[in-house]
Amino acid sequence: MNELQQHWRRHKSYILYLLALYVLGWGFSSYEKIFLSLIIGTIVGLFNTWTLIRRVERLGRAVILGRRVVSLGMLSRMAAATLGAIFALRYPEHLSIVWIVVGLMTSYVVIMIDFFFQKNKEEER
Length: 125
Prior knowledge:
Layout: H1 3-28, H2 32-65, H3 74-90, H4 97-124
Helix pairs in contact: 1-2, 1-4, 2-3, 2-4, 3-4
């Protein structure tokens, strides 16, 4: 398994644990609006990260084979984030756009935290 796939599996598991915590918060706290927004934002963020990983792998294969790749799919990732925002605007009594954006950024925060942990682990060796 290549390094990118190892990172993806690790990040995915961390985000799924966070989603489990969000679901518990949604079910057992009085902050349903916040946790539901975090759930939707994090799912869209996880989808965007998965899409980016797939496109980067496709780019790597194309470079090896000497072919061209049109894009890394920025438009589709932006459309997914916009869809989450549209849900928040359509159902403001159930969702908060601010917390959806926080959920969207969760994947990137997890990636940064994991990077620092892996860097420290490397330095200890």
